Amino acid sequence: MSWVEFCRVPSLMAAEMWKDILESEGLPARILPEGDILDWGERVPFRVLVPKGREHVAEEILRKL
Q1: I need a labelling partner for 51 at 20 to 30 A (CA). Which of 7, 11, 59, 60 fits?
Q2: CATH number of the domain that 22 lies in?
Q3: Which three-class secondary structure state does DSSP give residue 24?
């Protein structure tokens, strides 16, 4: 499965919240820190990824919030 960036968030906590919201609606999601994976930490900006071609599903989930 190919993944694309859906949004960027300022912290690990925000990334985990986005991931939980998307996955609770049945859309797989991944989070990755910006930069090197070794930078993983609470105050590092993160990218939220969704499966390629499913970005519209993520946008629809956000509209329902």
Answers
A1: 11
A2: 3.30.70
A3: helix
- Domain span at residue 59? 3-64
Those residues whose C-beta lies under 8 Å from the C-beta of residue 19, and which sit 6 or more positions away, are 29, 30, 31, 48
Is the pLDDT assigned to residue 63 strictly greater than 80?
A: yes
Average pLDDT, rounded, for the chain = 93
DSSP string, the chain: --EEEEEEESSHHHHHHHHHHHHHTT---EEEESS-GGG-STTS-EEEEEETT-HHHHHHHHHH-
| Number of separate domains in the chain | 1
